[in-house]
Amino acid sequence: xxxxxxxxxxxxxxxxxxxxxxxxxxxxxxxxxxxxxxxxxxxxxxxxxxxxxxxxxxxxxxxxxxxxxxxxxxxxxxxxxxxxxxxxxxxxxxxxxxxxxxxxxxxxxxxxxxxxxxxxxxxxxxxxxxxxxxxxxxxxxxxxxxxxxxxxxxxxxxxxxxxxxxxxxxxxxxxxxxxxxxxxxxxxxxxxxxxxxxxxxxxxxxxxxxxxxxxxxxx
Length: 219
What we know:
Helices cover 0% and strands 44% of the residues. It is mostly beta strands. Mean pLDDT is 85; it is low at 12-21. This is Wall-associated kinase family protein.
């Protein structure tokens, strides 16, 4: 999982009294898993503004096999890590897309698709986030906002290509096109899925059998 920042697209058009910035609606849960839930976010009927619902669900922590409350964007499995009304941002944990190969070609893959914006509340921040691809001979891109009328199936595409001559050509900690590449993203993304394309892995299976791609906060 990776941390990414979402912008609250409609929050700037709403005006709240100062007390509402850090408190829940009266009679509503004020936190989940240690995270404070301020209005317009809320848990339960009557506790949130349309589009700002948070679900507090029990989830197993694999390290100790205990169940703990985890805040998620309602209708998704996207975990909420932080809510900041002052700067109109939400930090969430997004899945990582991957594709693995064998001698016959693609063996398995996962597109890490997320759609958390049915109410037009959220945008993926282009100022905070990058799209990163890790792996050798790896071409990956994200697609966002399906468009049935345009030349392409989606309004937005962006990605990059990473190559390696051999395992020794990779520099640890570097992400400049050899074993890893990164690219800024356009503004306006409201959903995301990862697509892998292109290159044979026959000659690199011994040191790069899988490719990974994800949106991540620049920190």
